[in-house]
Write a structure and sequence with these properties.
- It is a single chain.
- The chain has 690 residues and is an all-alpha fold.
- Helices cover 58% and strands 2% of the residues.
- It is flat, with a radius of gyration of 46 Å.
Length: 690
């Protein structure tokens, strides 16, 4: 500007000198007019200089950029709007402080001759840019190579940026969760980067998220924990959500709790760099933090011992690494406190009741609530009047493992060693005694049964024997896999290798028995008659309804049945269906790799579910339906002997199968007791004939 003024001054002086030379030859009047003109040019000097450095005003810029249809195309061919909302600009933090050309510094005229360069927030916000440059958002890239999140993604469009104190700002305290959720709540976007969108849903349902939704301006939001511009991955030692920094991060709001925690055995271990020691998020959760009074909270009364503390104090890892006693949770669960807790009590003592919450210390520390000197007060919270004689013995009595150093544990172990054999001996003797009596009485009752008819042929009985044997082996070995800690799994005493072998052998036997049965009903007369008599008919439906009415007292006559009742027909066809289904799904699981390669992988999962639930259904059906007909029906007590010798009393058969005249007629010659046969072979007054 000064150079331009100097050039103009020199030019005016030159013109004035030329005019002075001409004044010698011109009249005084003409010379006077020339001097007036020169003086006018000198006075216009500031105006000419200002015109030389003119910059466009906001109104000039908006003359074009207020047009909502003003657009351009970027390097990728994407249409970009060049429109600026004057109202939003005026209300923004930038519009109230700067003009357009303060940011668009290369614009010298309106309209501008060249495309302005893209503005950089770092020109004013250098500190924020420096922090952002090292953040996860700057390092992570979108598919097009641009940063995962930039200034405008969080703060909004540049011409409408609002101060963070403005309630309408996307980075105001109340709006931070929504702003972060725009990206972190998108499932496919987060999965593509190795993350997940569940964190947004979890936070919204947390104690922090609910407080923010209710208008709290102090409850933690994303930036309170993760930071603002320098957001780092959790495995970065500088990140505020790194494991070792979590206590300090949570302590920004929970200062008193942090001080107590730092003094605890957990806090001291974290300070020493022990990665196995728990920090706030290990117990309370990360984004799912809930109030302790919430039943779903990981630190609620019902979840604390069985779930939260158990993650560390039940296993053997702490024992192996640091000689910290294991099985703390199982021994608690075996105590009255644990049993009552599992029963739903919300007032019974849990881990925190005795050990403390954030102030947990080893029992050797005089400040510990479980230090011997403090146990009277700790236990006295619930057990009023306790003395040292009550509190000096161990609470966690580990009967099954560990070293028994105290008298209480040793006493319980010796009592257990005495009673377990005693129980087996006494109850085993009772079972043997009753089994002997039951067998003798059952056989005596069987011999006194009277005339009988053939209910099952020898061939059918062998088929039934293979079926029931393979079925019960499959039940035992199958559920032992599903429930490895159950009593029957322990009683089997089989490793997984032998369990799987026995299960598959039994499965092959069951399938083989089914194939044989198909051939039996196809190629034998008895088989064809069997399946013909088992075919369901409309009468079976009527019989089922009539039977219910009869036993409810609404009918005076019981419906009559043929060779098989509706109940027996239903059981047979249920058996056929279940055997086919179990065979198909069992083979799919046995050949899961082949099935998974030929079909979608989820077919194997579906087969597993069907195999399990069909097994449950079949087992319960046998226990409830079949065992009633064989054992618990008062008409057949103590059992229906047809499965063993194929015979059934004529009297009972007539009562149950009165319409089966064919069987009754065929069995007429056999429908007599052994005593009647002996009487027919004896002559009067003489010994039996040979």
């Amino acid at each position: 500007m000064n150079a331009k003024r100097g050039w103009l001054s020199m030019r005016v002086m030159e013109i004035t000198a030329e005019m002075d030379d001409e004044a010698c030859t011109l009249s005084m009047k003409a010379a006077s007019k020339t001097r007036v003109l020169a003086m006018g040019c000198f006075l216009l000097l500031p105006v000419l200089a200002a015109q030389a450095e003119h910059k466009p005003k906001d109104a000039e810029c908006l003359a074009c950029h207020a047009d909502p249809t003003l657009t351009t195309t970027d390097a990728n061919g994407k249409t970009v709007s060049l429109s600026v909302d004057a109202g939003k600009m005026k209300q923004s933090v930038h519009g109230s402080m700067f003009s357009c050309v303060d940011c668009h510094k290369d614009v010298k005229s309106s309209p501008h001759a060249t495309t302005p360069a893209k503005t950089a927030c770092s020109d004013c916000h250098a500190d924020a840019q420096a922090a952002y440059r090292h953040s996860y958002h700057a390092i992570a890239k979108k598919p097009d190579g641009t940063p995962a999140a930039t200034c405008v993604d969080c703060h909004g469009e540049a011409h409408g940026v609002l101060a963070s104190s403005d309630a309408q700002s996307p980075v105001s305290h109340s709006n931070i969760p929504t702003t972060c959720g725009r990206c972190h709540g998108q499932k496919f976007l987060m999965e593509s980067t190795g993350g997940n969108s569940q964190v947004v849903v979890a936070y919204q349902d947390s104690v922090h998220g609910r407080a923010v939704q209710n208008g709290s301006q102090t409850a933690a939001v994303c930036t309170d924990c993760h930071g603002t511009h320098q957001i780092l991955a959790a495995n970065d030692a500088r990140s505020p959500v790194n494991k070792y920094n979590i206590p300090a991060t949570c302590g920004k709001c929970h200062g008193e709790v942090r001080q107590v925690y730092q003094q605890s055995i957990h806090g001291q271990a974290v300070t020493r760099g022990n990665e196995l020691a728990p920090v706030c998020t290990d117990c309370h959760g990360i984004h799912t933090i809930k109030a302790p009074s919430d039943p779903n909270s990981s630190v609620s009364d019902r979840n604390l011992s069985g779930a939260t503390c158990a993650r560390c104090h039940q296993g053997v890892r702490l024992t192996q690494e640091f000689d910290v006693a294991g099985n703390r949770v199982s021994t608690y669960m075996d105590s009255y406190h644990g049993l009552a807790s599992q029963g739903g009590s919300l007032v019974v003592a849990n881990c925190a009741s005795c050990h403390g919450v954030h102030n947990i210390l080893p029992s050797s520390d005089p400040r510990s609530t479980i230090n011997p000197a403090n146990l009277d007060a700790t236990c006295g919270q619930c057990h009023t009047g306790v003395t040292e004689n009550f509190t000096r013995y161990k609470v966690h009595v580990d009967v099954e493992g560990g070293r028994a150093l105290d008298k209480g544990t040793r006493a319980v172990r010796w009592i257990r060693r005495f009673y377990l054999p005693l129980i087996l001996l006494v109850i085993g003797g009772m079972l043997a005694h009753n089994a002997l009596l039951w067998r003798a009485k059952a056989l005596a009752r069987r011999r006194a049964m009277g005339p009988s008819v053939e209910r099952m042929t020898r061939n059918q009985r062998w088929q039934h024997l293979v079926l029931l044997t393979s079925f019960f082996v499959l039940v035992a070995t199958g559920f032992a896999l599903k429930y490895p800690d159950s009593w029957f799994a322990v009683a089997l005493g089989l490793g997984e290798r032998w369990r799987s072998i026995i299960h598959r052998v039994a499965g092959v036997l069951l399938i083989g028995d089914g194939v044989y049965h198909v051939l039996y009903i196809a190629f034998t007369r008895d088989g064809r008659r069997l399946v013909r008599d088992l075919l369901p008919t409309p009468k079976d439906v009527r019989d089922a309804w009539a039977t219910m009415l009869f036993y409810l007292g609404h009918r005076t006559e019981k419906p009559k049945s043929g060779r098989f009742t509706y109940a027996e027909k239903a059981e047979y066809w249920a058996l056929v269906w279940g055997t086919v289904l179990m065979a198909v799904t069992g083979i799919m699981l046995w050949a899961k790799v082949t099935v998974g390669n030929l079909m979608a992988r989820w077919w194997v999962d579906a087969a597993t579910a069907v195999h399990f639930y069909e097994a449950v259904l079949a087992t319960l059906a046998i226990l409830v339906w079949h065992f009633y007909q064989v054992f618990f029906d008062p008409d057949v007590y103590p059992m229906n002997w047809a499965w063993r010798d194929g015979r059934m009393s004529v009297e009972h058969y007539k009562e149950e199968h009165e319409l089966d005249t064919e069987t009754l007629a065929q069995s007429g010659a056999q429908a007599e007791t052994p005593a009647e046969k002996d009487a027919q072979t004896k002559p009067e007054g003489g010994p039996p004939q040979a």
